[in-house]
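Private note to self, pasted from the team thread so I don't lose it. Backbone tokens:
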């Protein structure tokens, strides 16, 4: 077993290891970076839990807080985690509804990675006595991942898990 080398997608990274990180003050999908997946011969999930997500209500500009869960089955690329952190941070001053935020995140990751399968779930803290937990997914069309996406969509909330971030 050998370790990852620069030619395995590391040479193009600009954020990881950069001690002068600049935090975006507006929505910034351009900060997302990817590295090569060295295990394209198998299916596996990559999961991110982001408990400090914030965005703004597009009408009132009041902050909304959430835990964002991202799970995907990669194909040729993996998202680099520091770039993902900065990307999610870029929503801090972005005004959109909860449903829009999770769909935007998923769309941007699909564009960057072309994953076999991806799902994004936002568990937002209550405001006005109600919480909103949008969930979206995508499976590559014409493949078993499209079937998986349809199945998971129809069954994703049959047994709601305990929500412990509120």
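Design output:
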């Amino acid at each position: 077993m050998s370790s990852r080398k620069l030619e395995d997608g590391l040479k193009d990274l600009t954020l990881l290891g950069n001690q002068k990180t600049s935090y975006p003050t507006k929505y910034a999908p351009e900060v997302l970076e990817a590295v090569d997946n060295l295990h394209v011969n198998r299916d596996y999930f990559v999961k991110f839990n982001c408990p400090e997500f914030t965005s703004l209500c597009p009408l009132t500009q009041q902050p909304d807080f959430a835990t964002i869960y991202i799970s995907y089955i990669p194909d040729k690329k993996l998202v680099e985690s520091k770039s993902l952190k900065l990307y999610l941070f870029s929503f801090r001053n972005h005004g959109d509804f909860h449903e829009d935020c999770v769909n935007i995140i998923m769309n941007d990751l699909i564009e960057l990675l072309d994953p076999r399968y991806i799902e994004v779930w936002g568990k937002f803290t209550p405001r006005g006595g109600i919480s909103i937990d949008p969930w979206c997914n995508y499976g590559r069309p014409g493949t078993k991942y499209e079937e998986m996406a349809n199945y998971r969509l129809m069954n994703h909330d049959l047994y709601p898990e305990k929500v412990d971030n509120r």
